[in-house]
Amino acid sequence: MEITYERVEPAHARQLAEFLCGDTWPFHGSEVVGEEQARGWVGDGAGDRVFWITLAGERAGLVRLMDLGDPTPLFDLRIRTEYRGRGLGGAALVWLTGYVFTQFPDVRRIEGTTRRDNAAMRRVFRRAGYVKEAHYRDAWPAAGGRVHDAVGYGVLRRDWLSGTTTAPDWDDEPAARGD
């Protein structure tokens, strides 16, 4: 499987809008992306970068890196319907993690969030060395007024460098004072 990553340039705004508007994204904030929103993703000057994920020359997905000037950037990963389930998401997450940590020396960690019911993405996070760090109840609005739990994952530069993972200290609640 030959996967490549190509930077989306301002001249690609129309293709990006067509790509985003031409599919549905069931585990994202909005299942359907509007053209104006999509065009705003290219060249916004706010420390974001967008890359096509290509498989055998076909644009199969994209990854958007956000807040790259911050020590803790975020990302958005989207794989077209017909390419889902082929390992592209996992390969893209490994690629983007290496890209960010090698190109941005001030980045200490990378974060990503998904819906609790997105089991595939949760597996991708774990396989790429990301650790579950947060669980937000009723935090992800969806179509039809539904609300889902959101789950946050992160990877630390030091874990990425050493090939290990360190779990958060979940048992850090202060002791009750009899209240």
Automatic annotation (TrEMBL):
Residues 3-158 form the N-acetyltransferase domain. InterPro entries: Acyl_CoA_acyltransferase, GNAT_dom. It comes from the Bacteria. This is N-acetyltransferase domain-containing protein.
